[in-house]
């Protein structure tokens, strides 16, 4: 799914490579480090252990995050570069935050 300012996801080189590095865990699932068009990125993957109503709820929240962040352009807001909303691996591809773990803890509190 294209985000504002992002390339349409249909070219052969439009591939996200996941690295075996977990940047963090949240309500949706894990956030992995990866590369996308040569750029270091954070890849937020939807949990694959849930199903039914819980999965639908997570998918709706995930889509909402994409909808909102996909429109934002601000130096203090991490940009979404690409997204896949279809199973089996819905994910958001975004800029990697330079914030420390302590800052993320404060944000999550
Ligand atoms: N773009 C990013 N760059 C680096 N680390 C990130 C990035 N996004 C998330 N993280 C890491 O992953 C963790 C989980 O983030 P995530 O947004 O999934 O969860 P959350 O803050 O609990 O919010 P949510 O309720 O949306 O899941 C963060 O606390 C942070 O450590």
UniProtKB/TrEMBL annotation:
Recorded superkingdom: Eukaryota
Keyword Coiled coil belongs to the record: no
Residues in Protein kinase domain copies: 17-109
SUPFAM superfamilies: Protein kinase-like (PK-like)
Keywords, comma-separated and alphabetical: ATP-binding, Kinase, Nucleotide-binding, Transferase
Residues noted as binding ATP in the record, renumbered to the chain: 44
Pfam name, any one: PK_Tyr_Ser-Thr
Transmembrane segments: none
A GO molecular-function descriptor: protein serine/threonine kinase activity
InterPro entries, A to Z: Kinase-like_dom_sf, Prot_kinase_dom, Protein_kinase_ATP_BS, Ser-Thr/Tyr_kinase_cat_dom, Ser/Thr_Kinases-Pseudokinases
Full protein name: Putative serine/threonine-protein kinase
Species annotation: Tetrabaena socialis
